[in-house]
Amino acid sequence: MFVELKHSLRRYRGQIIGWGIGLALLGLLIVPMFDSLSEQQETFEQLLEIYPPEISAFMGDLSGMTTPEGWLAIEFFSYMPLIIGIFAIQMGSGLVAKAEEEGTLDLIMAHPVSRTALFMGRLLAFILATLGVLFIAWLGIMIPMSWSTMDLRGIEVARPFLSLLAELLLFGTLALLLSMLLPSRRLASMTSGLVLVASFFITGLAELNENLETAAKFSPLNYNQTQEAFHELNLSWLAGLFAISVVFILLTWWRFERRDLRVAGEGGWRLGKWAKALKRGA
Amino acid sequence: MSDYAIEIQGLVKWYGSVQALFGVDLNVKRGEILGFLGPNGSGKTTTIRCLLDQIRPQEGKIHVLGIDPQANPVAVKSRVSYLPGELHLEDNLKVEQILRYFKELRGNQIDENYLKELIERLDLDTSRTIKNLSSGNKQKVGVVQALMHQPELLLLDEPTSGLDPLMQQEVYALLKEAQAHGTTIFFSSHILSEVEAIADRVAIIRKGVIVEESTPSQLIDMAMRQVNVSFLEPIEIAPLEDIPGVNLLSTSDLQATLLVEGNMDGLIKTLAQFPVKDMKTVSHTLEEIFLKYYREEDQEDA
Lengths: 282, 302
Description:
The complex is a heterodimer of chains A (282) and B (302). Chain A has 282 residues and is an all-alpha fold. Chain A is 74% helix and 0% strand. In chain A, α9 runs parallel beside α12. Chain A is globular and about 65 Å long. Chain A starts with a helix and ends with a helix. Chain B has 302 residues and is of the alpha/beta class. Chain B contains 11 helices and 13 strands. In chain B, strands 5-6-7-3-8-9 form a 6-stranded mixed beta sheet, sandwiched between helices. In chain B, strands 11-12-10-13 form a 4-stranded antiparallel beta sheet. A 3-stranded antiparallel beta sheet of chain B has the order 2-1-4, covered by helices on one side. Chain B starts with a strand and ends with a helix. The A-B interface holds A 3-4, 6-7, 11, 102-104, 106-115, 258, 260-261, 263-264 and B 15, 49, 52, 54-56, 73-75, 77-78, 80-82, 84, 86-90, 101-102, 104-107, 142, 145, 155.
C-alpha cells in the first residue's frame, strides 16, 4: 500500500503544486484587497446596499463583507467548492479508471499487490493531495495576513478549509464510485461535475425560492460552511459529509474487489454502436 | 507438489452476453515452455488474465503453482511475472523510475546484477523517458520487468512483439536460460518460427476451446506432406492408389504427385517395387498447420 501511496503522490505532485499555488495566489490577492476596501468602508457599505438579493443568495450575506470573515467567505470560500471541486472530481474519477483506460493497471496488478492495497494506497494519496492543496491555499491566506489589518488566527481560517475538505472528499469519492459503475472515466467526471454544478445552483436558488428548500436539503453544498465556520463549525454537518464519503469509498472498494479489470480501449464511448443503430433506423 | 505449474479445468468466461471461453482445459508442466497459439479473439489473453485474477471466470478451476489465484492472488503474483500483449507504461516516467517502481512492488527482492545484465543484453537506455521510446524499446522494458525477479512462472503475451530480429534472438536466449534455471514459460505468439524455435509443447486455442495440444514436431509430423516421385520408366499406377493414408493428386507417364498423411512407411514400401529415379518431400511448417486452423475457422464462419 505504501509503495502505491508513494508512487501516487509522486504522480500527483504537479497537480498539488499547480492547484495549491493557484489558490495561494488568489489568497495573496484577496487579503490585501480587504485592507484597501476597509479604508473606504462607508462608500463600500453604500455600494453593498444596492446589490440585488440574487448575489447575496449565491455569495452569502454581503453585509458581512466588511469583516475579515465575511470578506474571505464571500471572496474565497463561497465559490471555492465549484473551482477546486474540478480537481477533486478529476482526481477521484481517475484514481483507478485512468490507469485502467490507459492500460497501465494491467501490468501493475500483475505484481504482488492486492486490489485492496492498491485502492487504499491511491485513495490515501488522493486525500493527502487534497490536504496538500488546501494547506498551500491556507498558507496563501495566512502569509499576507501578517502584514494586513485582518486579525484572524490560523485555526479560525482552517475551519472553513475543513468544511471545504469534506465537500471535496464527497465529490471526489462520488466521482470515484461512478468511475467503477459507469463505462468510462469521462462519463463519471461529467456526471459528478453536473451534480456539483446543480448542487451549487440549487443551494443558491433555494435562498430565493422557498419551493427549492426541500431539494436543497439533499444538496451537498447546502452543508458547506463559510462565514459561520470561522468561529464555530457545525460538526454534525461535517460528520455527515465525511460519513457519505466513507459510504462511497466502501461501495467503490466492494465493487473494485469484485469486478474484472479493464484493459486499454475498453469502457469508452460506444458511438459506433449508436451510429449503426441510427443508420439502421434511417 | 503438483507436477504442473498451470492447471486449468473447464474454464468458462463471459463478457456480458459474449462468451470468450467455452471450457478451456490445459495443463502446463513445471519447467516446460508452452507456446499458446490462436487467431485474434480466440481467448489467449482472456485465459492468461484469468491466471492472474485480473478477470474472474464464471466456471472452471485454475491452479497456478498449486495456488488458486482467486483465493490468493498476491501469493500467485509474487511467484509469477507477466508481460501483457499490449504493453502500456506510464509515459512521464523514465525507464529507471518505472523499473524501480516495479521493483518496489515486489518488495525490492531483485538481484541487481541480473537486472544490470538484462539491461545490457537488451541494450536498454534507462535514462530515457517512456514517452520517447519506440515500441520496440518499450517492449524491452516489458521483457526486463518480467525477467528481473527470476520468477517460477513467466506468462508472456507476445513477448517479442515490436523487437528487431537480433533482439528477438536475445529474448529467446534469455527465455531458454530462464528455463534452464527451472522457470516455466507460458507464452502466446503469432510468430510461428518463434514457437518452433523455443516451445517444448504447443497448445492451439480456437473460439475459446483448446483444439490441439502437442509438440511442434508432432504437429508437423501429423500434417499432410506432399511427395513428388519421378520414375525411370512408365509404371502401373494402381498400387499407388491403394496405399492407406495416401492420396494420388496427379500422374503422368514418368511422375506422380501424392499427398501423405502420417508416416511414409506404406508409400516407401510400395515404391520399392518401381524403378524410382527421384523423390522429393515437401514438409509443412508449423505455420501452414496453424493456418489450417485459421482457415477452418473462416470456413465455419462463412
